[in-house]
Amino acid sequence: MERSCGLLTCRKEPVPLKSVSVTLSINDFVAGVSATLNYENEEKVPLEAFFVFSMDEDSAVYSLEALVDGKTIVAELQEKMKAHSSYEYALSQGQKAYLLEANNYSRDVFSCNVGNLQPGAKVALTLKYVQELNLEEDGAQRHMFPAILNPRYQLSDRSGDSCLDMKTPIGPLEDLPYTLSLVATISSQHSIERYLGQDKTSAQVSLAEGHKFDRDVELLIYYGEVHSPSVPVEMGMPEMKPAPSAMVGFYPDISEVEISSSCGKFVFLMDRSGSMNSPMSNQARSQLQIDAAKETLTLLMKSLPLGFFGKSVEYEGGLMNLFVFTDGEVNDTFTLISEVKLNSIHSTERWLLLCFSFGIEEGASTSLIKGIAQESWGYPEFIPGKDRMQTKALRSLKSALQSAVEGICLSWDLPAGLSANRHAPEQTVIFRGQKLIIYSQLTCNAPASGKVCLKYTLQGKSFEEEMRFSLQPKANPSFTIHRLAAKSLIQNKDLGSHQTSESDKEDVLKVSILSGVLSSFTAFVAINKELNQPVQGPLAQRNISMSTLFSSLCVKAYSDLFAFKGPSQRKRVNSTGESVVQLISLQKANGSWDLDENLPKVLDTNLGDIQAANPAKHEHAVVWATVLAVLCLHASSRDVKCEWELLEKKAVAWLHDHAGSPISILVKAANTFLKLCVNPAVLDF
After folding, report:
1. Residue 382: its H or E element
2. Which residues of 639-668 are buried (b: 16+ CB within 10 A; e: fewer)?
3. For the residues of 22-87, what is the DSSP string, one character each?
4. E strand spans, 459-520
5. 287-324, pLDDT tens digit by residue?
6. Lowest-confidence range among 432-436, 515-519, 610-614, 643-647?
7. Alpha-carbon distance 46 to 116, whole Å?
8. Which end of the chain has fewer CB atoms < 10 Å from its terminal CB, N or C?
9. Which is it for the CA torsion 636, 637, 641, 643, positive or negative?
């Protein structure tokens, strides 16, 4: 099977990439990455190669080095136009040059130019960046390496300055001409769960030798006491004010409570573009993205609690929960993010927008999915081919229906002469399963300790947590916290050259240069001036889409695409097919099912037999149908109860209101008719 592996020339010739070596250092909730790419020009002419690769938009890229003929050349971060001029001039002088920049229309796409690579020459490029770890539903901290970069749409009115104008080459996975080596070191103030060593605060893992980088893989880390707040402090950077920076980590343990219909309005927006007709994964008979989206939308609508429906009413403002499903294949993500930011609070119409965004399939733009969620205090989710869209969507719906942490206020208790300056706008809402990280810079060093107080409200109650920390931090040569803090500042103002105001551009440029963190307005350029031989004629150009590099690390291969497991004794309610989806689609808005000709088709029986099996005979037909449907759900799709438990609760609530005295008899008769053994207690009867 072919896919966008990217490691080919525009003539589908093998690229000069020989191997990739990655070192990952994880400390609590952040990671430092150093990735080295080894190239060799096997052609007989000098080359200028172009690489396009994806990286999570939260990554703070701060270093590019080139090792050529035993000499290391360190790139300098310059204003982008200046960096381009330096690069072009170096090539004209016959010098070796390297240019690394972010795309003008998206924060998660980068391009790297390798210029004047002589025949037989070998070069090693090393890229360094730091990044926050993503949080999974079960509390795992995740670092993930996407193996592809989906080709984004090319808009006809663009001027051609996007690094995505090239076509992504296609090649067989088995022919990947390079390998990946990886070593990951993990350290934490928390204990590392699911680790068998004696020292549970550190661990080291690595990939097997000769690993082929042919799929998305991931590293999952489980910490003990992960809900305890933390305040690591880091020594200051010489380039910036030499004051320490602090990173406040807050991951509240929010228990589930009874849902209600008083949590605002819900709007579901589905991407219907042509790319949504692609399969969810590269496995045989994989479901199409658009079909999975349709099923997910049906499930979401059925799972809304009672009180949302009744009759059509005029929209009067308030809280709007917007669910956006897309494969993220757009060219100009900054324009969409700007629209969300502009409309997140509408004072005239008196409504507040919370956007829950879903990136479908590998390669979905992290810049788009995270950007629109962050600008609206919502929550982003990514749905790779191995995951079920329905599970991720229901997780966010449950969060939106639950009480959230609100009124977050951070105050500092510091020695005299010290103060703390926050690096990013205040986040006012945290949903269940979310993590909040706040960066602040302290005004100066002091041989003392400090205290930070976090206040918030949850379910109408006020809470307060205090954390003490030392103001004598250890030195960190990577300046991880400082660079992530700078990235936070840059993300807040950097919306690309076409959307950023002049004043914000000046601020972004200043922070980017001082911190060494790449932005839309800067680029890394490295030049080896020892080779001063004028170029004879134009350099041969090779376009290589480096999608598989520089995102996150991975030591766990993706499992097979999940399939429902139904009871073997009941083939007709086996949920591996479409029966369960059809059953859910038949549920009415109030939670019940009608006893008509549609239900027998799903149960693979006939209407007469269903009616005859009803112990109440012709009475309570709707109640009888609802009991049958609920028992089928419990028996045939227990492994994905998280997907249908909300609509099941609604059905049970309806039964309590309408069933009357014979409900226990109906449940027993339904078990007999369906040849099941569902315990009536699971239905609260």
Report:
1. strand 379-383
2. ebeebbebbbbbbbebbeeebeebbeebbe
3. EEEEEETTEEEEEEEEEEE--SSS-EEEEEEEE--TT-EEEEEEEEETTEEEE-EEEEHHHHHHHH
4. 461-470
5. 888 888 888 999 998 998 876 655 666 666 777 889 99
6. 432-436
7. 6
8. N
9. negative
User: Looking at the domain that runs over 265-308+316-401, which CATH code has it been given?
Assistant: 3.40.50
CB atoms within 10 A of CB 34: 16
Specify whether the CB–CB gap between 659 and 667 falls below 8 A: no
Is 28 a residue whose pLDDT tops 70? yes
How many CA atoms are closer than 13 Å to the CA of 318, on its beta-carbon side? 10
* Region label for 454, one of left (φ > 0), alpha (ψ between -120 and 50) or beta (otherwise): beta
Encode pLDDT of 214-243 as tens digits: 665 678 888 887 788 888 888 877 766 667
pTM: 0.78
User: Using the 8-state DSSP alphabet, how is residue 296 labeled?
Assistant: H
Burial 409-430 (b: 16+ CB within 10 A, else e): ebebebeeebebebbbeeeebb
Per residue in 528-563, pLDDT tens?
A: 866 555 444 455 555 544 333 333 322 322 222 223
Average pLDDT, the chain: 77
For residues 370 and 208, give the distance between their C-alpha atoms in angstroms, rounded to a whole number: 32
Helices (H), 177-317: 289-303
Whether residue 67 contacts residue 556, with contact meaning beta carbons closer than 8 Å, is answered with: no
Q: Which DSSP category does 275 fall into?
A: G
Instruction: Give residue limits of the domains in the chain.
Output: 2-244+498-554, 265-308+316-401, 571-683
CA atoms of 545 and 554, how far apart (whole Å): 20
Contacts of 528 (CB under 8 A, 6+ apart): 66, 68, 71, 73, 95, 96, 97
CA 355 vs CA 314, 321, 374, 377, 460: distances in Å: 21, 6, 8, 7, 23
Q: Which residues pair with 50 in a beta bridge?
A: 113, 543
DSSP 279: B
